[in-house]
């Protein structure tokens, strides 16, 4: 197990590819769950939601935290760090987000340019819970805070544990103390935990120290919380209802990462790994084009719960992603 855990950076790009593909499948399941699906499709949706669900997002954040730690430890100049990160994410977001919000707010909904600017700025997520590009809003906030997070986690493992505990406690406190605010941003706040674990893992890897015990603890918590989450559907109010929140699936992706990495490390260099690396290299573009096009299609009445429409959504978003990725990566950039 230690060998697999210590070699996760070797398959980081493949894991990015796995995560974006899993997110695309999850979004179809999310749509199909609310539609009148066949018995076979319904069983697939329920099984996928149980075994993988939206864990691809947590994998994204874990890998991003790990990568940012490596990057910042090599070059701790704060302004250079910000320039690199913004150069990676903002051009892609402004292209896809600008076109997407223009279509949604100005053309389709005719909500006006003020609404367009508010949504494009992503302030609408933090204030109203408009979730279309919530991941970009979160990752930009994490970029801003990263130099501080780096110094805290790099200083002591105790700070890493304290930060993880503080985020969990803060989410629960917000749930009880300000439920409206919680509903708006809980999709992002809980996910900070996996980002912090990724940063902590990066630190331990750089120091050449094992992370097995910590990984096993998180995996065990993931299994226990998931079980309690499932039980809470039948026993409402179980543990004050906290396990019915995103906490119920919070650490479960640690199990998926370990299993996926173990499989990838056993595979010889071949087509599957190359395909995953290919998708991983343009995962940001795929994510943005996919979620925006999916929203536009659903808004126009082309429900992506209908498989042919969803396949069309995937095909168009792939072509757009490929074009934008080639346009923006003529000079090398680092995630």
Overview of this protein structure:
- The chain is mainly α and 335 residues long.
- The chain has one domain (2-328).
- Helix content is 77%, strand content 0%.
- Helix 4 packs across helix 13 (253-266).
- It is globular.
- It starts with a helix and ends in a 7-residue tail after the last helix.
Features:
77% helix; 335 residues; 16 helices; mainly alpha
Low-pLDDT parts are none
Task: Calculate the mean pLDDT score and round it.
Answer: 93
> Which sequence of SSEs, written as H and E, runs from N to C?
HHHHHHHHHHHHHHHH
Number of strands: 0
Give a summary of the structure in a few sentences:
This protein is mainly α and about 325 residues long. It has helices spanning about 1-5, 10-35, 40-50, 55-75, 80-110, 115-120, 125-130, 135-155, 155-175, 180-190, 190-205, 210-230, 255-265, 270-280, 285-300, 305-330.
List the helices and strands and how they pair.
Elements: H1 2-6, H2 12-33, H3 39-51, H4 55-74, H5 78-108, H6 113-120, H7 123-128, H8 134-155, H9 157-177, H10 179-189, H11 192-206, H12 212-232, H13 253-266, H14 271-281, H15 283-299, H16 307-328
Helix pairs in contact: 2-3, 2-4, 2-14, 2-15, 4-8, 4-11, 4-13, 5-6, 5-8, 5-15, 8-9, 8-11, 9-10, 9-11, 15-16
């Amino acid at each position: 197990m230690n060998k697999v855990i210590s070699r996760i950076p070797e398959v980081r790009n493949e894991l990015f590819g796995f995560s974006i593909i899993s997110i695309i499948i999850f979004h179809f399941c999310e749509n199909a769950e609310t539609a009148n699906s066949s018995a076979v499709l319904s069983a697939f949706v329920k099984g996928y939601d149980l075994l993988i669900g939206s864990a691809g997002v947590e994998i994204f954040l874990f890998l991003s935290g790990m990568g940012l730690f490596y990057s910042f430890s090599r070059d701790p100049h704060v302004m250079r760090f910000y320039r690199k990160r913004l150069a990676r994410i903002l051009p892609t977001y402004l292209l896809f987000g600008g076109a997407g919000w223009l279509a949604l707010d100005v053309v389709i909904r005719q909500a006006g340019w003020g609404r367009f600017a508010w949504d494009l700025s992503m302030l609408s997520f933090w204030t109203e819970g408009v979730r279309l590009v919530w991941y970009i809003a979160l990752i930009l906030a994490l970029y801003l805070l990263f130099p501080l997070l780096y110094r805290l986690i790099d200083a002591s493992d105790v700070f890493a544990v304290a930060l993880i505990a503080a985020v969990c406690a803060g989410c629960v406190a917000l749930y009880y103390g300000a439920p409206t605010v919680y509903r708006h941003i809980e999709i992002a706040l809980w996910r900070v935990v996996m980002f912090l674990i990724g940063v902590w893992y990066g630190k331990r890897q750089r120091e050449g120290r094992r992370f097995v015990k910590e990984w096993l603890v998180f995996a065990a918590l993931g299994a226990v919380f998931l079980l309690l989450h499932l039980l809470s559907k039948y026993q409402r109010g179980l543990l004050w209802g906290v396990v019915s929140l995103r906490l119920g699936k919070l650490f479960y992706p640690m199990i998926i990462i370990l299993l996926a990495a173990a499989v990838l490390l056993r595979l010889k260099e071949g087509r599957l790994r190359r395909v995953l690396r290919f998708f991983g290299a343009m995962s940001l573009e795929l994510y943005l084009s996919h979620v925006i096009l999916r929203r536009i299609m659903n808004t126009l009445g082309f429900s992506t719960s209908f498989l042919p429409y969803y396949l069309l959504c995937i095909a168009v978003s792939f072509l757009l992603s490929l074009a934008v990725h080639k346009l923006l990566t003529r000079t090398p950039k680092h995630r």
